[in-house]
Specification:
The complex is a heterodimer of chains A (about 300) and B (about 290).
Chain A lengths: L4 E11 L4 E11 L3 E6 L5 H8 L7 E6 L2 E2 L5 H8 E4 L11 H10 L5 H14 L15 H13 L5 E5 L7 H18 L2 E5 L3 H4 L4 E6 L2 E6 L1 H8 L2 E7 L2 H10 L5 E3 L2 E6 L2 H11 L3 E7 L3 H10 L4
Helix pairs in contact in A: 3-5, 8-11
Chain B lengths: L1 H16 L1 H7 L1 H23 L6 H36 L2 H6 L5 H33 L7 H26 L5 H18 L11 H9 L1 H21 L5 H10 L5 E2 L2 E2 L2 H26 L2
Antiparallel strand pairs in B: 1-2
Helix pairs in contact in B: 1-4, 1-6, 2-4, 3-4, 3-8, 4-6, 4-7, 4-8, 4-10, 6-7, 7-10, 7-12, 10-12
The chains are: A alpha/beta (about 300), B mainly alpha (about 290).
């Protein structure tokens, strides 16, 4: 089944007086998917997101979000109603309670009292707000604040959620909670999530990844496709006798590195590792197959020259 | 419209719950009350005693003179204090978060202005009631109903002027540090520009001109006239007209600019035209800032 496209970006450019931050990028995001938008600092990610969120004017190109064309008459207001944004930093009001904060933000979307009450019930249930809704936002822990931030972004039930480094600075347990919540919301509502993150294991959960470098898209695809192209699996071996092991590797013309008796061999896939292990089985004391990660993909791409 | 009213409600809560901001917005007022209690009242009574006896009417007149200045100061200092929220929102990027919702930057800015007007008026009204109680408690009389309404009207004008003036000032700053500096400068100058610390007649000529060109000082002048109508008549009963005129000029109840006595109508014109000019300047500055 073909998924509906919720974001369509064509030849998007943003130029400032001194530099071009975004250099004609094109990509699409399908509804109900988790889309990861990656890049080093200064790659043009934030500029692109600010344009998509109607916060910044584009220089040229076309952007279509949820059927509305960016910067055309009245469509920006419709786009704003279609999106929810969770910024990296907590931006709710410290002196207001969680409930007050979320209701105040909900009223900005012109929701009726009944809609607001229903939506609040929805976000409260999904984000466990009951225990914190009467607390002042300023008194919450980092994880609790993040829950309130996400609830704020979802109070108008947008089909598209922008998450700008949502788990930066959170402890692993809270990060896990945030992701469980986002996944559950996606399953329940078919919501699309547009994610930027510096945690590559989070990007690995995406259906599609776009990597930006110096304002240009340098890679895109599924996490598996990118791993196949840019990362590699590794086989770590410890021999009964290191000398015999070294000789075997040289005889079989297998390139390797050695550190403190651990020999590391780059393999195309885990299946290739299996073949090598069978050959070297009598010599091996222990082994480990290390899967290529999104970190490898990111580092590899960032080292490449922009064409 | 609902988003606009909602933003005003939010700004209002934010200011009221920030006790430190409320305290600092009233700091210059608290200082001037302290100075008045310590020596300003005594100094003025002593200087007036040379011409008249220290009757209860004289004390009431001096108190009313002070109260009028105080109320015009409150309008400026409280409205300025509320704009601290706007600056905090800019610095913390809360404004950016607001802008992801279907509200315009102009709506957000207007919500700060209207919040300033509401807070300024509420504080001024409370201060007026407290001041009236103070005047009556120290031997004076309540304002007549018509004078009370007149004072309310002048206070409304004063709050409007102060809010527009402060929005212009706050459009020039972007950080809480620069806003704190601005608040300190305004708080320090305010007592002089409203002629509360020192009577205008005691200032050198050029400083008197500065005060008279400062639109807020005209709200002080109008308030003084509204408050002191009865007490002036009582204190200066039988005194030569020149003595009353002299007192009015020295204590900023009448302004004489470049040899011309300014009428109350002129003060109203100065206030209203200042509101219009500052509004135009603020709008163009706002547009330039967010081009």
């Amino acid at each position: 089944m073909k998924l509906k496209t919720i974001i369509q970006v064509e030849n998007l450019r943003k130029a400032y007086a001194q530099e071009e931050a975004v250099k004609g990028i094109s990509f699409s995001v399908e509804q109900g998917t988790l889309f990861a938008f990656l890049g080093a600092n200064g790659a043009g990610k934030s500029t692109t997101i600010e344009i998509l969120c109607t916060l910044l004017k584009k220089t040229s190109g076309t952007v279509n979000i949820n059927g509305y064309t960016l910067d055309s008459s009245n469509d920006n207001a419709a786009i704003r109603k279609s999106i929810g944004v969770v910024f990296q930093q907590s931006l709710l009001d410290e002196r207001l309670t969680v409930y007050e904060n979320i209701i105040h933000r909900g009223k900005m979307y012109g929701l009726s009292k009944q809609e607001l009450a229903e939506n609040y019930q929805f976000v409260s249930t999904h984000l466990n707000l009951n225990e914190i809704e009467k607390q002042k936002y300023g008194t919450l822990s980092g994880g609790q604040k993040r829950r309130a931030d996400i609830a704020k972004a979802l109070i108008h039930r947008p089909p598209l959620l922008f998450l700008d480094e949502p788990t930066t600075g959170l402890d692993p347990q809270t990060r896990q909670f945030v992701w469980q919540t986002i996944k559950r919301l996606q399953e329940d509502t078919n919501m699309t999530v547009f994610l930027t993150t510096h945690y590559m294991e989070e990007a690995a959960m995406a259906h599609k990844i776009v990597v930006l470098k110096q304002g240009e898209i340098v890679a895109e695809g599924t996490p598996d496709a990118l791993k196949t192209k840019y990362a590699y699996d590794q086989l770590a071996l410890v021999f009964h006798n290191s000398l015999k092991g070294t000789n075997w590797l040289i005889e079989n013309n297998i390139s390797h590195t050695e550190k403190q008796g651990i020999f590391t061999i780059r393999v195309q896939s885990t299946i290739h590792a299996l073949a090598l292990l069978k050959q070297a089985e009598p010599l091996i004391a222990s082994f480990e197959v290390i899967k290529g990660t999104m970190d490898d993909v990111f580092i590899h791409i960032m080292k490449q020259e922009v064409s | 419209m609902e988003a606009f009213l909602n933003l005003i409600e939010r700004n209002n809560k934010m200011f009221r719950r920030d006790k430190t901001a409320v305290f600092f917005s009233l700091l210059s007022v608290i200082i001037v009350i302290g100075l008045y209690a310590l020596f300003l009242q005594k100094m003025q009574i002593d200087s007036l005693k040379q011409a008249s006896e220290a009757t209860p009417e004289l004390i009431t007149m001096v108190n009313e003179w002070f109260v009028a200045g105080l109320l015009s100061m409150i309008a400026v200092s409280t409205t300025l204090g509320t704009f601290g929220i706007a600056i905090k929102d800019i610095e913390s990027k809360t404004v950016v978060d607001f802008l992801t919702a279907p509200v315009s930057r102009a709506t957000i800015q207007m919500s700060y202005v209207l919040n300033a007007i509401i807070i300024g008026f509420i504080f001024s009204f409370i201060a007026l009631i407290v001041c009236e109680i103070f005047i009556v408690a120290t031997g004076g009389t309540w304002l007549s109903f018509s004078s009370f309404l007149k004072v309310i009207g002048i206070l409304a004008l004063s709050v409007l002027l102060a809010s527009i003036m402060n929005v212009f000032f706050t459009l020039l700053v972007n950080t809480q540090n620069s806003f704190a500096a601005l608040s300190t400068i305004v708080g320090t100058l305010l007592g002089f520009l409203c002629g509360v610390y020192v009577p205008i007649g005691a200032l050198p000529g050029f400083a008197q001109n500065i005060v008279m060109y400062f639109p807020v000082s005209h709200t002080t002048l109008l308030l003084r006239n509204a408050f002191m109508e009865n007490s002036l008549t009582q204190v200066f009963a039988g005194a030569p007209t020149e003595a009353i005129e002299q007192y009015k000029l020295i204590y900023g109840i009448t302004y004489k600019l470049h040899g011309t006595m300014l009428s109350h109508a002129t003060s109203y014109i100065i206030i209203l035209s200042s509101i219009i000019i500052l509004t135009i300047l603020s709008i163009s500055l706002f547009k330039r800032k967010h081009r």
